[in-house]
Amino acid sequence: MKKFLISVAAASTMLTLAAAHASTYNWTYTSTSSDTASGTLTTGTTDNGGFDVTAITGTYTNSGVGDVITGLITPGTCCSSDIDKAANDNIVYPDQNGGGVIAGAGGYLDTAGLGFSVSDSTTTTWVDLYFRVTPTQYDVLRGSSAGKNGFVQSLGTFTLVPVAATPLPPALPLFSAGLGALGLFGWRTKRRAQAIA
Fold first, then answer.
1. Of 3, 11, 93, 120, which cross-links 50 as Cys (Cβ 3.0–4.6 Å)?
2. How far, in Å, CA of 134 to CA of 79, rounded?
3. What is the β-pairing status of strands 91-92 and 65-72?
4. Tens digits of per-residue pLDDT, 133-176?
5. Residue 173's CB: how many other CB atoms inside 10 A?
6. CA distance linking residue 68 with residue 142, whole number of Å
7. Which of 61, 26, 29, 30 is nearest to 42 (CA)?
8. CA-closest candidate to residue 23, choices 138, 160, 115
9. What is the reported pLDDT for 42?
10. What is the C-alpha separation between 99 and 108, in angstroms, rounded?
11. Three-state SS across the chain?
């Protein structure tokens, strides 16, 4: 019984810690032209004041043609263009500090951006959303070449909204305390029986 209680306590601690490091957000990108994207992303550990994106789902639409987002592009491997832009880092800033890239401007993404791959219904196989310094708006690079060279497509807006976490049921701590008390009672009963015998 004692081993069982220890394993339950360890499992509960691990679940609590795992939940503390992951957050889920709904995101949208709407351009001034024909590009739109939306979906859900999950963040992991803290990185440079923001959070590493560990998973992404959703759709990307260009000129009315929708593509399914199939996953993240490895940080540092995407995407260059004719502008001076760093490779993607896949970091988001929920507090809109934008990695401090522009004092006072704020942003959910930095100038390196968030790179993801999409299903290939046209010629687009990757997309990189990033914060552009001049003008101070979000922008998108997209392309299909193996070298991940793209072109600036459209300025727009990017939103990031946390998905409400499922609250802890109020009775769960009481239930856990009750299980612990029953375990302690069973252990004491067993110990007394052994002492009498």
1. 93
2. 18
3. unpaired
4. 666 678 887 777 654 555 655 688 888 888 887 776 777 777 77
5. 10
6. 14
7. 26
8. 160
9. 93
10. 9
11. CHHHHHHHHHHHHHHHHHHHCCEEEEEEEEECCCEEEEEEEEEEEEECCEEEEEEEEEEEEECCEEEEEEEECCCCCCCECCCCCCCCCCEECCCCEHHHCCCCCCECECCCCEEEEECCCCCCCEEEEEEECCCCEEEEEEECCCCCECEECCCEEEEEEECCCCCCCCCHHHHHHHHHHHHHHHHHHHHHHHHHC
Lookup: tokens for 179:
């299980």
Region label for 81, one of left (φ > 0), alpha (ψ between -120 and 50) or beta (otherwise) = beta
Digit-coded pLDDT (tens) for 96-142: 655 544 444 446 888 888 889 888 655 668 888 888 766 667 888 77
**Taking a C-beta distance cutoff of 8 angstroms, is the pair 154, 35 a contact?**
yes
pTM, whole model, 2 decimals? 0.67
Tokens of 12: 């509960």
Residue type, 66: G
> Looking up tokens 């997209």, which residue turns up?
142
* Span 48-103, pLDDT tens digits: 778 899 999 999 988 788 889 999 988 887 776 555 677 888 988 887 655 544 44
Write the CA distances from 62 to 33, 143, 166, 187, 192, integer angstroms. Answer: 9, 12, 34, 65, 74
- Backbone φ and ψ of 104, nearest 5°: 85, -15
